[in-house]
Amino acid sequence: MNTRLPHLRHFPHRRGFTLIELLVVIAIIAILVALLLPSLARAKARAKETVCLNNLKQVGVALRMWANDNNAKYPWQIAVDQGGTLATREWVNHFRVCSNELATPKILVCPLDKARKPASDWVSVAGFDNVSYFVGLTAEENKPETLVTGDSNILGGGGGLNPHWNAFLGSSIDAAWDGEVHGERGYLAFPDGSVRRLGTFALRDQISAALAAGTTNVVISKPQGVL
Which residues of the chain form beta strands (DSSP E)? Predict the structure, then answer.
């Protein structure tokens, strides 16, 4: 007869992790994290790219709606005393005048633009601080090749805040993206409401196409403060 009590019965020895096994597990986890982080960063960047695309679509549509109500002219092509922003003293008025068509000034900032932050309201919005997009001073609603708005980090055209390119340059268009927002690419909005992502060479081709369509000069105006 077995007189041994249940709590005295022998159980196999339960062995824990050794230091080496623990280090191996930690190393595997670290490798997996290192492999996943770039993918997560790329996914986050793509999401921000999509936000910028949607922002410009909304801005482009708002400007188009405004033009439809004003004889196919954009705000910067109509005098201030007629409700436009031609020769306005405050650059951001080019967008502020469309506040009825735009839901919020926050869409004027590309989420990848680290130099600017969204404004909370239309009263406080400022060109230098709260706007990522240029306005196309020579855009024409009946010329779909012209540039209405887009990422403002464009170089060339003589530099400055109002770079321009004219028909006399021929094939020597020097426009380029500075690479600080979307790499060497950027988004442009057109009179038909479309938005396209273009590289530097495609940007030059687009400016050339606008000139070939009969535009004497292509002039963009980058975000500015009080003029």
Answer: 133-136, 149-151, 154-155, 164-166, 176-177, 185-189, 195-199, 217-221
DSSP class of 121: S
Each residue of 5-40: pLDDT tens digit? 555 455 555 566 688 878 888 888 888 887 777 766
For the purposes of burial, counting CB atoms within 10 Å of the CB of 144, is it exposed (0-12), middle (13-18) or buried (19 or more)? middle
Task: Look up the pTM and report it.
Answer: 0.82
User: Domain coordinates of the chain in residue numbers?
Assistant: 45-221
Q: Tens digit of pLDDT for each residue in 50-60?
A: 999 999 999 99
**What is residue 184's DSSP assignment?**
S
* CB-count exposure of residue 149 (10 Å: 0-12, 13-18, 19+): buried
| Residue 93 DSSP label | H
Distances, alpha carbon 7 to alpha carbons 4, 14, 15, 99, in Å:
8, 17, 20, 80
pLDDT more than 90, % of the chain: 71
- Closest to 94 in 3D by CA, of 129, 145, 140, 59: 59
Contact 161, 224 (CB under 8 A): yes
Per-residue DSSP letters for 41-81? HHHHHHHHHHHHHHHHHHHHHHHHHHHHTTTT--GGGSBGG
Among candidate residues 115, 121, 202, 120, the one with its CA nearest the CA of residue 153: 115
Residue found by looking up tokens 């002219």 in the block: 73
Alpha-carbon distance of 199 to 179, in angstroms, equals 10
Distance CA 202, CA 187 (A): 11
Type of residue found at 50: T
